[in-house]
TrEMBL record:
Subunit structure: Homotrimer. Forms a complex with activator 1 heteropentamer in the presence of ATP.
Organism (species): Ceratina calcarata
BP-aspect Gene Ontology terms: leading strand elongation; mismatch repair; regulation of DNA replication; response to hydrogen peroxide; response to methyl methanesulfonate; translesion synthesis
InterPro entries listed in its UniProt record: DNA_clamp_sf, Pr_cel_nuc_antig, Pr_cel_nuc_antig_C, Pr_cel_nuc_antig_CS, Pr_cel_nuc_antig_N
Record-given protein name: DNA sliding clamp PCNA
Function: This protein is an auxiliary protein of DNA polymerase delta and is involved in the control of eukaryotic DNA replication by increasing the polymerase's processivity during elongation of the leading strand.
Annotated ranges, domain Proliferating cell nuclear antigen PCNA N-terminal: 1-124
Principal subcellular localization: nucleus
Subcellular location: Nucleus
Cited CDD domains: PCNA
Family per similarity comment: Belongs to the PCNA family.
One term of GO molecular function: chromatin binding
Length: 261
């Protein structure tokens, strides 16, 4: 028996919104420790990794490890059927062919159940090595979203350069060029508005706009996001998922066309 209950279904809605443009389908690994997902995007360019801890759910039960393949678009449509104040419960048997989504109103006067067929997905679990990064930047999620959106109007790629003075985003194309610089915040009243840079060495890398603009759809999940960069490693964009976990996007720099493994 597998059962996971969240008081805020909005978290799952936002999480699905953050991956539905990159993944058609994915396998959710349900373990005693929580729910994990790891998958390459449809074009096999970026990697998405999600971890939701069991202790972050209002109720969590997983009697045996389950691998459940799901159609992301279908799952998203089902979650949109839930009211903003309704709880969501995911439920499946030990040898499931279907997963059930149960939405319950706060008054418990309304109970809706949706059953979705599971699918078999042939995918290998990719090992993500622990990496110490040359530069780690924490910044407001909205600011990163705005920068990616604005600069993508000038070119197909964005160069991110980080040094002791701050972080610089730039893009150029047929119509001109654009640059946005952010200095490290010395003192700020609101923690969610801070820009914090942990720098071991300067880094300058270029990434495809189309993927960055997919990653920023995770922005509504949290007020602050994190960028981790090293010269010879993929960029990591990390967003926390409420109080229960994280979503990380990995993207190789454009100068290295090899797929990120």
């Amino acid at each position: 028996m597998f059962e996971a209950r969240l008081l805020q279904n909005a978290i799952l809605k936002k999480l699905l919104d953050a991956i539905k443009d990159l993944l058609n389908e994915a396998t959710f690994e349900c373990l005693d420790s929580g729910i994990q997902l790891q998958a390459m995007d449809n074009a096999h360019v970026s990697l998405i990794s999600i971890n939701l801890r069991s202790d972050g759910f209002d109720k969590y039960r997983c009697d045996r490890n389950l691998s459940m393949g799901m159609n992301i678009a279908c799952m998203y449509k089902i979650l949109r059927c839930a009211g903003s104040d309704e709880t969501v419960t995911l439920r499946a048997s030990d040898n499931p062919e279907n997963i059930t989504f149960i939405f319950e109103s706060p008054s418990k006067e309304k109970l809706a159940e949706y059953e979705m067929k599971l699918i078999n997905i042939d995918q290998e679990h990719l090992g993500i090595p622990e990496t110490s990064y040359a530069c780690v930047v924490k910044m407001p999620s909205q600011e990163f979203s705005r920068i990616c959106r604005d600069l993508s109007q000038f070119g197909e790629s964005i160069t991110i350069a980080c040094n002791k003075d701050g972080i610089k985003f730039s893009s150029s194309g047929d119509y001109g060029q654009a640059t946005v610089r952010l200095a490290q915040t010395a003192e700020v009243d609101k923690e969610e508005e801070a820009v914090i840079i942990n720098l071991q060495e300067p880094v300058k890398l270029t990434f495809a706009c189309r993927y960055l603009n997919c990653f920023v759809k995770a922005g509504p999940l949290c007020t602050q996001m994190q960028l981790s960069m090293s010269p010879d490693a993929p960029l990591v964009c990390e967003y926390t998922v409420g109080d229960i976990g994280y979503i990380r996007y990995y993207l190789a720099p454009k100068i290295d066309e090899d797929e990120d493994n």
